[in-house]
Design goal:
- There is one protein chain.
- With 328 residues, this protein is mostly helical.
- Helices cover 77% and strands 0% of the residues.
- Helix 1 packs antiparallel against helix 6 (112-120), helix 4 (67-90) packs antiparallel against helix 5 and helix 5 (96-104) runs antiparallel to helix 7 (122-148).
- The longest helix has 29 residues, at 298-326.
């Protein structure tokens, strides 16, 4: 398992690196990067979510995966607690909220998605996408409160979130029209005339959705390449951010999961390991936008994103080696 995680995260890092070089060399200008990010968030990702939900969701899958949205919310709350514990040691009063926010919010979707796919196939992708529902709700409610102390923007962002609408629509259609699950793989020879148009639409959405992972990784690299970060001795608060996000939060998650299992709580292996995967991810790229919008420390956010993404190349495989070694 650890070698699969290492292989996937290394290949992902190389794509991110390609995006970084493309931005530094001027192939991906800031305007193009912004457009690429919008295409990922508002077009490719909703198409991926819709087709994955349509293809993989049924009542049995929902009964098994109902815990996933709650899981991701719990992971953010655990990481928030880690940030609160570390804040008096590494933070200062002016940076406290940003510090806790960066520790609390992992990159829960675009980086773990290909790893979950490599480990568990469509089932792993579905679990990550269901986790996204809980993470989005917590980010735009509790996350806004951490950073800004205000909930005024949360409802607006949740209502306008295309990814959440695509998730719900895909689940509803899959449950009401079970035959729709076959549309993505339906061949012209098997299709009745009435099914040709729906099949063409779903297969077109699947092609667009397949662009999500490579486009998102290139966009992440380009965004990181756009950050102006001086090479200097790391300040204490940045060390604390990296320690909290990459080590303390995931290890605290492992400890709590172990205690829950000892108490008899049954968590499936797939859900548990995807939870560990999300908990060990670097700072979410969206944290940079949110700190800028809501008045956080944008320099700390940029440094936290850049360096946590780089060091996760080492920490994520190491954490999964521990999980495999001790059977957690």
């Amino acid at each position: 398992m650890a070698h699969v995680v290492f292989l996937k995260i290394t290949s992902m890092f190389l794509v991110i690196l390609a995006g970084w070089f493309a931005r530094r060399l001027g192939f991906l200008a800031r305007e193009i990067t912004a457009t690429l990010s919008l295409l990922v968030v508002d077009v490719a990702f909703p198409a991926l979510v819709f087709t994955q939900m349509l293809r993989t969701v049924d009542l049995a899958a929902l009964r098994e995966g109902w815990f996933a949205p709650l899981l991701c919310g719990m992971l953010i709350f655990i990481a928030y607690f880690a940030g609160v514990l570390l804040a008096p040691i590494f933070g200062n009063k002016s940076q406290r909220n940003t510090f806790i926010f960066l520790v609390a919010i992992p990159n829960w979707i675009f980086l773990p998605l290909p790893i979950a796919q490599a480990l568990y196939g469509d089932s792993g992708v579905r679990t990550v996408l269901l986790c996204n529902v809980g993470a989005q709700v917590v980010l735009w409610s509790f996350g806004v409160w951490i950073l800004h102390g205000s909930m005024s923007q949360a409802v607006k962002h949740l209502v306008a979130n295309i990814g959440l609408w695509a998730t719900g629509l895909g689940i509803v259609i899959a449950l009401l029209f079970p035959a729709a699950r076959e549309l993505e793989t339906l061949s012209p020879a098997e299709a009745s005339p009435s099914m040709l148009v729906p099949a063409a639409i779903v297969q077109a959405l699947a092609m667009v959705g397949s662009l999500t992972i490579p486009m998102s990784l290139l966009a992440i690299g380009a965004q990181l390449g756009d950050l102006t970060i001086a090479i200097h001795r790391f300040p204490r608060v940045l060390w604390g951010t990296l320690l909290g996000r990459l080590l303390v939060a995931p290890l605290l998650t492992l400890a709590i999961s172990y205690l829950l299992m000892k108490m008899g709580v049954n968590i499936t292996e797939e859900t548990r390991l995807i939870g560990y995967l999300i908990a060990s991810m670097p700072v979410a790229i969206s944290c940079s936008v949110m700190t800028e919008r809501l008045g956080g420390d944008t320099t700390l956010a940029a440094e936290g994103i850049f360096y946590s993404t780089f060091f996760s190349l080492l920490t994520v495989p190491a954490i999964f080696f521990l999980i495999q070694r001790f059977g957690l």
